[in-house]
Amino acid sequence: MLDREGFRPNVGIILLNANNEVWWGKRVREHSWQFPQGGIKYGETPEQAMYRELEEEIGLRAEHVKIMGRTRDWLRYEVPDHFIKREIRGHYRGQKQIWFLLRMVARDSEVNLRLTDHPEFDAWRWHNYWVPLDVVIEFKRDVYQRALQELSRFVTWPARGAGNGGGPHGERRHSARYLRQPHGRSQPGTAGAGGAKQAASGLTANAPAAPAVAPESLVLAPNK
User: Which of 26, 54, 27, 53 has its CA nearest to residue 39?
Assistant: First the structure.
C-alpha cells in the first residue's frame, strides 16, 4: 500500500528496558542491526500495526509494554533505486514511518524471535539509547537519528555520573542475558537475504556490515 507520493506507511519501534537501554536486533543471516519495524496494513491504525509488528517480530504483546510516546508526524526516507526491485521502480519511493517509544514491563524471557515461520531477527541485545548509526543502512540513518532525538523527551534520565543506563552523557556495561544457552561462542549466520517484510517493501538485501559484538552480550534465538 503506497500513498500518492510513493511512500509505504510503516511503524518503527524503540523498546526500552528499566535502564533506558534499547532493544537492538540482528537481522536473520546478516550482520546488520536495527529496531523492529513493519508496514501498516489497509484499515489499521499506526498503534494497531505497532502491536501486531511487536508480536510478530519479537513475540511481545500489549500487556508486556507501556507506550511512552510517539512521533508527532511521519518521518520519511527515500530508498536509492539500486535497492528497489526493478518492477516497482518509478512507483515506490521509500517509507514514511510513525515511531513509537515503548517501555518493556515484562521479563527478557518473554521475547520470542521464533513466533512466526519467517523471523526477522536471530539475535538481540540491550544497547545504550544512542545506538551507533554507522551500523544502520545509510538511507535510514537520518530517520533513526530524528526518531531517537524526538522521543528522547519522554525518557527520564538519571543524574549525570550516577551510573545511568545509556542516557545522554553516560554509559552502562551490558551483562549477559540469554533466552537459551547458545551451542557455540561464535555469532550465528552470515550475510544473506533479508526477511519477508524487507522483500515486500521492495528492498534488496544489501546492508552495512556491523562491528563485531561480544557473544556474551547477545541473546540468541533457539533453533526450531
Answer: 53
Report d(CA 126, CA 58) in Å as an integer.
13
Query: Which residues fall within 8 angstroms of residue 52, CB to CB, at 6 or more apart?
Result: 38, 41, 44
Instruction: Indicate the burial class of 218 (C-beta count within 10 angstroms; 0-12, 13-18, 19 or more).
Output: buried
- Report how far residue 61's alpha carbon sits from residue 106's, in angstroms, rounded to the nearest whole number: 10
pTM of the model: 0.75
Which of 178, 176, 175, 156 lies closest to 167 in space, CA to CA? 156
Asked whether 172 and 166 are in contact (CB, 8 A), the reply is: yes
CB 32 within 8 A of CB 26: yes
Summarised one tens digit per residue, pLDDT across range 17-66 is: 999 999 999 989 888 899 999 999 999 999 999 999 999 999 999 999 99
Question: In which residue are the cell numbers 513509537 written?
Answer: 100
Cα(159)–Cα(115) distance, rounded to whole angstroms?
Answer: 39
